[in-house]
Amino acid sequence: MMQYDSRQKQKGFTLIELVVVIAILGILAAFALPRFAQLSEQAHRSSIKGTAGALAAGVALAKTQWVSNGNASDQDDVEDFGNGLVDVSSEGWPTATGGSNDPNMVPARCIQVWEGVMQANAPSVSESGTTDYTTSVQGDADGVGGGDDCVFTYELDGLGSSIEYDADTGEVTTTIN
To answer: Which domain holds residue 169?
Structure first.
């Protein structure tokens, strides 16, 4: 017959210890998961705001270069800006890269402006498909010039947040949903 030796070492966890550890992990997960979800949402918002800022800066730099070149009318291929392909309206705001100076925008020219004023590592944009942003046009909200504005809709979070570019005034606005 085997006798119990109190000096014998325990070789595992008791059921109570395991239940306590699982309960503690469950409580931690209940508090951590909502926080991680919120961080993801904040990251999307920051990405949209950063992209809008980069677009606004690129648009302003294109106009600044147009002014510093001494131009007073629309121009194809603004010299000394980016890759030298950005076209501007008579007000100096970017309108395309394919030889169009009309501030009444269409989706293809919105993409040209995006790619012409942003750096090479800019988020991807297309008229449809699996890109970071999709582009469309909407009626000019401010009524200046009567042209259509570019709307870049953020696709990665599915909430319909957007960046709008008005080629009549150079204004870039952000709508975050």
So the answer is: 15-175
